[in-house]
């Protein structure tokens, strides 16, 4: 009796009545990820000197060099600076008070990563010599 009842229910109610919906996808799947720009928009830097006045994420796109003064100056908090494997250099002879990256006082939450500062400045007997920066990363 039970099997006859199940057979009648199966025949009386075709599969189109059941709530499972269509089994064929409606189209291709959408993206399952966000791009880096959607998560953390970044500002490219290709030349120096450069001043950061707005919080955010910055990155070098090439080696940069300055003839005088600081290469990168940071005037705000909440900055991420990715040197992206590139090098910051100076040709000044010698740049005793200059820095590759100069951070003004009073600012915090600053991250500098993944790169190099090239300087040949030496200090001996109270005298600077060579070309380059007096400081790699300096906070006033």
Which short descriptors sum up this protein?
single chain, 140 residues, mainly beta, four-stranded parallel sheet, 11% helix, elongated
Would you write up a description of this structure?
11% of the residues lie in helices and 39% in strands. It is mostly beta strands and 140 residues long. It starts with a helix and ends with a strand. It is elongated, with a radius of gyration of 31 Å. The chain contains 2 helices and 13 strands, in the order ααβββββββββββββ. It has a 4-stranded parallel beta sheet with strand order 1-3-6-9, with no helix packed on it. The protein has one domain.
Write a brief structural summary:
The protein is mainly beta and 140 residues long. The protein has one domain (40-139).
């Amino acid at each position: 009796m039970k099997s006859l009842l199940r057979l009648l229910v199966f025949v009386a109610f075709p599969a189109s009545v059941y709530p499972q919906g269509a089994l064929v996808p409606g189209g291709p799947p959408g993206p399952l990820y966000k791009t880096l720009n959607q998560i953390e928009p970044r500002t490219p830097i290709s030349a120096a000197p450069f001043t950061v006045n707005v919080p955010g994420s910055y990155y070098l796109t090439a080696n940069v060099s300055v003839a005088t003064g600081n290469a990168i100056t940071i005037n705000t908090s909440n900055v991420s600076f990715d040197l992206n494997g590139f090098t910051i250099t100076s040709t000044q002879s010698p740049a005793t008070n200059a820095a590759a990256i100069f951070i003004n006082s009073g600012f915090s939450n600053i991250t500098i990563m993944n790169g190099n500062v090239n300087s040949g400045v030496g200090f001996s007997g109270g005298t600077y010599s060579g070309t380059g920066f007096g400081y790699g990363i300096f906070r006033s």
